[in-house]
């Protein structure tokens, strides 16, 4: 290490692909990469401790590494992945929405939320979304591309940096929960999402050491991928964005239902709960005069009950955060109350979600759409 440049270990990224990053690698690949750079294998653990223990991703500041190689390391294995475009806050600073720009100009959003006893990050898995749900700003913008494993994981690193720097009032700790409910359909980017999750779960020095029970993966109902996730036998929380209990309506508002019907989706969710022993969350966005009728509350109870007792499932009702100019809007409060009361009478575990961030384009895709339009 006399100052000569390190060997190149990664090829230039293909068009539309993110540059390779340390966070794309498995622990074994990190050690192999260290060797290819002419470094002892133990250097890989040193580098990883900077990232996962100290939350540092600027290799020029890795002072326990030889000064002569730090700049090369920064260029080769720690390329810049995210550039902050804008940050908006709500709830007296407890909700922070960040719009990021990727290396190719694509935009993505993440939302950091502090609650009294925890901090939760809503994370994006794609730039845009290909599921085309008409009430969703991201879905209406279409899919730009999948995010790389590192582009997903680095959102968690950035959020932890914000927390430990005290940028969110009331906490200097780390993330307790991550929900894959931001831009994109996580199970349509299965490999990168699972790679990111394994990094989030791995203990130091290989990852952030989070609990699997603190990670939620959302899907609109990609049945083969739900079954594949079931086979992983990771005790993650699965959240199914159902939004309608009958195929006639769901075909319209969740177009993927034309491929996998409500019964197939609920069956796959039930198998997931039975295998992992983790309760599934049924996400249901309440839309005025669309899906919020008492009759549909009964239909929802019927289809969930057929899979067994109520221990396997919890219904999470979400007041729709409407997109400006859209015909899709939030239910009336009296209709929300009637829907909840119907499910409760049927014995269905149900929660009406606390809404956050409506004044900062809080729903996924809204801020990106606003910035792109301008």
TrEMBL record:
Subcellular location: Cytoplasm
Gene3D superfamilies on file: 1.10.150.530, Aldolase class I
Cofactor note: Binds 1 [4Fe-4S] cluster. The cluster is coordinated with 3 cysteines and an exchangeable S-adenosyl-L-methionine.
Any Gene Ontology biological process: rRNA base methylation
InterPro entries: Aldolase_TIM (IPR013785), Methyltransferase_A (IPR040072), RNA_MTrfase_RlmN (IPR027492), rRNA_lsu_MTrfase_RlmN/Cfr (IPR004383), rSAM (IPR007197), rSAM_sf (IPR058240)
Positions annotated as active site in the UniProt record: 109, 364
Residues engaged in binding [4Fe-4S] cluster: 129, 133, 136
A molecular function GO annotation: 4 iron, 4 sulfur cluster binding
A GO term from the CC aspect: cytoplasm
Entry protein name: Probable dual-specificity RNA methyltransferase RlmN
Organism classification: Bacteria, Bacillati, Actinomycetota, Actinomycetes, Propionibacteriales
């Amino acid at each position: 290490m006399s100052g000569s440049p390190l060997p190149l270990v990664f090829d230039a990224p293909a068009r539309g692909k993110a540059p390779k990053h340390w966070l794309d690698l498995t622990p074994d690949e990190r050690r192999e990469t260290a060797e290819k750079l002419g470094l002892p294998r133990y250097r890989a653990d040193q580098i990883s401790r900077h990232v996962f223990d100290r939350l540092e991703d600027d290799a020029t500041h890795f002072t326990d590494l030889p000064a002569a190689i730090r700049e090369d390391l920064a260029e080769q294995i720690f390329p810049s992945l995210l550039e902050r475009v804008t940050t908006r806050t709500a709830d007296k600073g407890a909700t922070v929405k960040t719009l990021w720009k990727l290396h190719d100009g694509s935009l993505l959003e993440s939302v950091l939320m502090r609650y009294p006893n925890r901090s939760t990050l809503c994370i994006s898995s794609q730039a845009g979304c290909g599921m085309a749900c008409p009430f969703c700003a991201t879905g209406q913008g279409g899919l730009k591309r999948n995010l790389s494993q590192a582009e997903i994981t680095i959102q968690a690193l950035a959020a932890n940096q914000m927390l430990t720097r005290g940028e969110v009032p009331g906490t200097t700790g780390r993330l307790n929960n991550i929900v894959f409910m931001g831009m994109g359909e996580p199970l349509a980017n299965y490999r990168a999402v699972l790679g990111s999750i394994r990094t989030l779960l791995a203990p130091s020095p290989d990852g952030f050491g989070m609990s699997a029970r603190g990670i939620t993966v959302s899907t609109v109902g990609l049945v083969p991928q739900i079954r594949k996730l079931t086979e992983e036998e990771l005790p993650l929380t699965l959240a199914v964005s159902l939004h309608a209990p009958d195929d006639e309506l769901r075909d319209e508002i969740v177009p993927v239902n034309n491929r996998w019907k409500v019964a197939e989706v609920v069956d796959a969710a039930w198998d997931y709960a039975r295998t992992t022993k983790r309760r599934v969350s049924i996400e249901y966005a309440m839309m005025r005069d669309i899906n919020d009728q008492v009759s549909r509350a009964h239909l929802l109870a019927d289809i969930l009950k057929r899979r067994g007792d109520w221990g396997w499932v919890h219904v999470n009702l979400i007041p729709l955060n409407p997109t400006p100019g859209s015909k899709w809007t939030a239910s009336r409060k009296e209709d929300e109350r009637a829907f909840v009361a119907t499910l409760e009478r049927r014995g269905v575990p149900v929660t009406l979600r606390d809404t956050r961030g409506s004044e900062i384009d809080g729903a996924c895709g809204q801020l990106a759409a606003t910035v792109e339009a301008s």
